[in-house]
Structures are given as structure tokens and as C-alpha cells.
Amino acid sequence: MSIYTASKLGQAKFVPEGEHLYITDLVSDGKSTVARLIVSGDTTYYYWNRTKAGSTRHVNMSLPEDRHITLVAYTGNWDGTVTGGIHWNSYDHMLEHVTTFS
């Protein structure tokens, strides 16, 4: 499953087989792309791609089997904390239809 930020400034993609997350910064605008992954409604992960435009950060995750995944993509300005600097209104929509498996 793949989702874009508003105005397609960044993209987040989650591949359930093997639990791989890819965060791509698509535009050289000085902002980072942030992926928010919500696992079964109770555990939330935030991953930032703070490198240059055109780059993709790959995260090889290890999640339990049969978990429901919700994915959201934002832009942000890194301030040194996990959620600080996220532009909370920069998401387009959420995707909620993937289940983890190996």
C-alpha cells in the first residue's frame, strides 16, 4: 500500500510481506517526509526521511503476524523529537487495509 502527502510532496509505502516501510521525499522544498504507522489501533510508529529530495528511507520492520496496519504520510520540519515539527494538516488521507504476514 502506498500513500502521498497533500500536494504529493512525499510518499510512504508499506509492504506487508516482510514488513518493509519506504519513505520517499519527492520535492526539494526543505521539508521532510514522515510516515505514521498505526498497528492494530494501539501502537504507533513515526519514521522520518530527513535526507535530500529524491531519496528513499527503507525500514525493515519486525511486526507480529495478522496485525491491521493504518498508514499516514505527512511533511515536517525535524525539531529533534519524534513528533515535533510534523505538519499535522499535510496528510491527504489514510490507508487502512493491510494485514501483516511473513
Question: What can you see in these coordinates?
Answer:
- The relative contact order is 0.29.
- The chain has a single domain (2-99), classed as Immunoglobulin-like, CATH 2.60.40.
- The protein has 102 residues and is mainly β.
- The strands form 2 sheets. Strands 4, 5, 7, 8 and 9 form a 5-stranded antiparallel beta sheet that branches. The protein has a 4-stranded antiparallel beta sheet with strand order 1-2-3-6, with no helix packed on it.
- It contains no helices and 9 strands.
Give the percentage of residues in beta strands.
over 45%
CATH architecture, by name, is Sandwich
The CATH topology name reads Immunoglobulin-like
| Alpha plus pi helix count | 0
Q: How widely separated are the two ends?
A: 16 Å
CATH class: Mainly Beta
Structural class, from helix and strand content? mainly beta
Runs in which pLDDT lies below 50 for 5 or more consecutive residues are none
How would a crystallographer describe the biggest sheet?
A: 5 strands, antiparallel
Run of helices and strands: EEEEEEEEE
Q: What level of helicity do the residues show?
A: under 10%
**Integer count of domains:** 1
The count of DSSP E runs of length 2 or more, i.e. the number of strands, is 9
What multimeric state do the chains show?
single chain
The Rg value, from CA coordinates, equals 13 Å
General shape: globular
Mean pLDDT: 92
Quick rundown:
With 102 residues, the protein is mostly beta strands. It is built from no helices and nine strands. Strands 4, 5, 7, 8 and 9 form a five-stranded antiparallel beta sheet that branches. A four-stranded antiparallel beta sheet has the order 1-2-3-6, with no helix packed on it.
